[in-house]
Structures are given as C-alpha cells and as structure tokens.
Amino acid sequence: MLKVEALTCGYDSKFLLQDISFEIRDGELLGVIGPNGSGKTTLLKAITKVLKSQKGRIVFDGKEISQMGFKELAQKVAFVPQFSIAGVNMTVEEFVLLGRIPHRRQFQFLETEGDEQAAKQAMALAGVLQLRERSLSELSGGERQLATIARALAQEPRLLLLDEPTAHLDIGHQVKILDLVKKLNHENGLTIIVVLHDLNLASLYCDTLILLKEGKIHSIGTPEEILSYPVIEEVYETPVVVKTNPVVSKPLICLVPEDILKANRHSLNRTAKC
Ligand code: ADP
Questions:
Q1: Residue 36 has pLDDT above 90, yes or no
Q2: Could you tell me the distance, in angstroms and rounded to a whole number, from the CA of residue 101 to the centre of ligand 1?
Q3: CA 206 to CA 215: how far, in whole Å?
Q4: Among 160, 207, 247, 268, which one is most buried in terms of CB atoms within 10 A?
Q5: Separation between Cα atoms, residue 193 and residue 3, nearest integer Å
Q6: Which atom of ligand 1 is nearest to the CA of 36?
C-alpha cells in the first residue's frame, strides 16, 4: 500500500530524517518507536505532506504522494495528531463531520445525508455516538481522543496514522484506545501506522515495529526481534530487563532503577523468562 523509499526530510533546525525506507502492506498494524526527538512525528508529517521530502519518495498504491493534491491524499490517509483539541467549542458531531470535507464536491457547502451517515458510523465505531451532542470542551482527555479518531474515520481512509494516541491517558483509556485501534485493523481492515511511546504497548499491539534513532531507522522487525535488551539499551541508553509477558507471549520490558541494577549487576538475568 505505502512505500517509503530513501526518504530524507527535515527542518531549518537541521534535524533530518535520513534515508528512510520501509513498506506497509494492506491490513498491517505498524508501530513506530524511538526516543524523544528521534523523528517519529516528522515521519508522519512526511506521509501526510505537511513536510516536503528533500530526497526520496513516498508512494501510495503506485502513485507518488507529491503528485497528489491534499484532497486526494486526505481521501486515502487520515491523521490523528498528538495534541488534543481541548479548547475547541463545537459538538462532537460537528467536529466529526469535518472529516467529510475531503469528500465534498465543488460548491458543496452543506453536509449530505451520506456525510451524516458516514459521521454517524464513525462515531459508533469509535464509541462516541452517545456523546454526539456534547461540546468537545466538556469531554475528558480519553473521550476527546476517541472523538478525534472518529473524525479521522469519517474520512473513510484506507490508511490511518496515529501520533501517540495514548499520551497523557490513564491505563484504562490507553487499553481502550489501543483495543479500538486493533479492532479497526482486524475487523474493519484498516491499515494503521501508530507512533507509540510506551514499549510495552507497542509490544502488545503491533505486528511490526520500526525503531528510529537520531533520524535514521535503527531496525525493523517483529516486537520479538526489536525489543531485546541490548537493542533497547543501545537506542534509549537505559538499562532494562526483558521478560516474556505471562499473559500473551510478547516481550515485557521492565525498567530497573540504578541502585537496584548496581546491587544486582552480577545476578540479574536480563532476558529471564517468566
Ligand atoms: P519525536 O516524534 O520522535 O519525538 P519529532 O519528529 O517531533 O521527534 O522531532 C524530531 C526533531 O525535529 C526534534 O529535534 C525536534 O526538536 C525537531 N523539530 C520538530 N518539529 C520541528 C519544527 N517545526 N521546526 C524545527 N524543528 C523541529
């Protein structure tokens, strides 16, 4: 579906994403991880054409995105940004209907019945239909995040991009949001790229991970391949113990405070199985 080929892009601040190449196939759930400032958000900005590539290309279904208009791209790719829409004074339904703009015909100023149906379906999928008449400014952080996902779904995209959708949410809402992401992927066939901060969530929910370090791809692979303690320590410069999650057979990353590490340096089994 989406091929990124030798992409280089960045800012005047001199930060560059360099020589990024990867592919995401139809139906995949791809996670992007890496330390703060490694370029995760920048990569999503390049895929949504917010940022122009300096070298290389991004191809969606055989067509370079640089050859697509924003409207054409927005009919295929939807983006859920990192920062929440806390101060926006509109109802959930009005906000979700904004997702229909890329589908409007020329000189169409009002929503059609089809737009209203698509928005309703998107709100139902994201579990916010009962909040449709509430103002966004009255919602909790978790509800606002679900409303933002509903707006993206109203675009009826084939590829959904989410930038740290669980940031600032409690564990209950983290699981709720990522269960929804998984359901959209498994049951609704959406292809998804999700930037995640939390390595354990990335381990639990993603099929494949891209690990970024200082603007370059350090490695691509399954959670089992990427989330080993030597790799995490090298990239994050933090000692960890990696066990196997006792509930699902996935890597479980445990942080180790420095004093405990020092006291147990020789006895700590860094890859101990549970
Ligand atoms: P991540 O999402 O991995 O935390 P980002 O992609 O947001 O990292 O940022 C990568 C680097 O680019 C950082 O050093 C950041 O300061 C810089 N950066 C991000 N946005 C801008 C911008 N609009 N202008 C200049 N530099 C930026």
A1: yes
A2: 28
A3: 21
A4: 160
A5: 13
A6: 4
Ligand 1 pocket, Cβ-based, cut-off 6 angstroms: 11, 13, 15, 34, 36-42
Which position has the token pair 């139809």? 26
Q: How distant, in Å, are the alpha carbons of 153, 158, 188 from that of 61? A: 20, 11, 19
Q: Where are the domains of the chain?
A: 2-227, 228-274
Q: Where are the alpha helices (DSSP H) in the chain?
A: 40-47, 70-74, 92-97, 113-126, 141-154, 171-186, 199-205, 223-226, 229-236, 258-263
Residue 195 CA: which ligand 1 atom is closest?
A: 2
Q: What is the pTM of this model?
A: 0.94
Give the residue from 38, 51, 70 showing the smallest Cα distance to 9.
51
108-125 pLDDT, tens per residue? 667 788 889 999 999 999
Atom of ligand 1 nearest to the CA of 212: 3
Q: Which two tokens stand for residue 215?
A: 């603007």
The CATH fold assigned to 2-227 is Rossmann fold (3.40.50)
Residue 87 tokens, joined? 């101060």
